[in-house]
Amino acid sequence: MHQRSARAATVAYDYDDQLIEAAAVRRERLTTAFLYGPDSLRRQWSAHLGGALAGVLLSGLACAGCVGVAYLTGSGIL
User: Fold this and answer.
1) How far apart are CA 5 and CA 11, in angstroms?
2) Angle subtended by helix axes 2-36 and 40-74, to nearest 10
3) Which residues neighbour 72 within 8 Å (Cβ) at sequence distance 6 or greater?
4) Is the predicted pLDDT of residue 7 greater than 70, yes or no?
């Protein structure tokens, strides 16, 4: 009899964990839908696009600066 009640307690615990996890997932989905609307993937991707373009711009400026310094050093101006 003791094994049966222990198994029933385990099943109940698993069911409770499933309910808690389902509620957490539902809450996360509702929060995402509220913040980003129906096109959440599109909005998140476009939100990161500005940072990526800024990174490309800064790396291009750094490369141009290095080329300029190398040219001026090689030509004897610096």
Assistant:
1) 10
2) 70
3) 78
4) no
**Distance (Å, whole) CA 78 – CA 75:** 8
Q: Which residue has the tokens 């990526």?
A: 52
Task: Quote the pTM value.
Answer: 0.45
In this structure, the chain runs to a length of 78
- Give which of 33, 28, 57, 58 is closest to 44, Cα–Cα: 33
Return d(Cα 74, Cα 78) in angstroms, integer: 8
DSSP state of 76: T
Tokens standing for residue 1: 């009899």
